Amino acid sequence: METKNPNYRMKLEHAFADAPFVAENGIRLVACEPGWCESAIELTPHHRQHLGMPHGGLIATLADHTSGGAAATLIANDEHVLNEAEAGGKRTLISKASVTLAVVAAGRIV
Fold first, then answer.
1. Which domains does the chain show, CATH number per domain?
2. Which of 5, 6, 53, 104 has its CA 20 to 30 A from that of 32?
3. Torsion angle (degrees, nearest 10) of CA 49, 55, 56, 60
4. DSSP 3-state of 83
């Protein structure tokens, strides 16, 4: 895959460090290349729900930020994966996505 931003790695490093919820939960960028991204989190007691498993909100945030990171590796520096636009006085969230022949996801607790 080709990227529109040769500095995509720096853009992603800032995206992980500058997102308060992501940074405060310890989600960190591990690796990225055009079209993919890997992140990780060291689990602590406050990341767990009442049964001791990682909280679903944490898992969703990890998946959300990582998939957004993968998309961000392909777009220009001045573009965003998710845009907020005003239309007729209303706030609208716009997300761009594409479907491929396969969805690849991997996760593990180490």
1. 8-79 (3.10.129.10)
2. 53
3. 170
4. strand
- The tokens 């890997």 sit on which residue? 38
Which residue from 50, 43, 51 is spatially nearest to 27, judged by alpha carbons?
43
The model's pTM is 0.75
**Element (DSSP H or E) covering residue 22:** helix 20-24
Phi first, then psi: what are they for 78, rounded to 5°? -90, 5
- Tens-digit pLDDT string for the chain (110 aa): 899 999 999 999 999 999 999 999 999 999 999 999 999 999 999 999 999 999 999 998 999 999 999 999 999 999 888 766 655 666 665 666 555 655 555 555 55
Q: Which residue has the tokens 């990341």?
A: 47
